[in-house]
Amino acid sequence: MEQVKQRSQLAQIIRERRAIKKGYNDKVVTKELVLDLLNDAIWAPTHGMRQPWRFIFIGKDQLPTFAKRVAATYPEERRENRENYLNEPNAILVVLMEELEVQKQWDDNYGAVASMIQNFWLLAWEKQLGVVWKTNPHNYDPEVKKILNAKDNEKIVGFLHWDILMKNHLLKREFLLLKSSTYLKDNRQFPIKIKERVVICTALFDDVVFRLKMDTY
């Protein structure tokens, strides 16, 4: 009988995590909850301990005003759509990165921030919180940086849209599995990879000082 490999809880969370883009509910995501997760997420690898991140939290009460201001940076025919879109989640966490002139340091900083976001995403998933990392056109608009009071040397890495998941929510995740095979040419064998699309459904799981800089919009 084939022995089933037992995965750790962390490995299971890594495999089951996904982006939650729709189906938001009206449960409130609080600033205190976000700060609690960030205090662990910022233990990400960061070259030279630069910790190049800063956060701005937009709660449900502030979303209507914030969404209207950001939507106003779009062409008139898209403003209503963008305003509705930004009002969908229960909260938004904007992640900013300190930009440095030296390319290697810039790359190091972006890698650190991306690692931190992955930590944050996994921690949120563990607590049945839905997150999606958004990189829409407004992330790159200088006017949106002004709305956020971002510094000249700060880059908007992403808007993290938030929701609290329903316990009976089923998660569908699609994978491309690579299967090894071979083909013959001129009487010689060549290895190839065959892609197989699979959909997996799973139920939800019921002394260093780090700088944590999070502002409220």
Automatic annotation (TrEMBL):
Keyword Cytoplasm: no
Superkingdom per UniProt: Bacteria
Cofactor(s) needed for function: FMN
Residue ranges constituting the Nitroreductase domain according to the UniProt record: 14-160
Similarity-based family: Belongs to the nitroreductase family.
SUPFAM superfamilies: FMN-dependent nitroreductase-like
The entry's keywords: Flavoprotein, FMN, NAD, NADP, Oxidoreductase
Name of this chain's protein: Nitroreductase
Pfam family, one: Nitroreductase
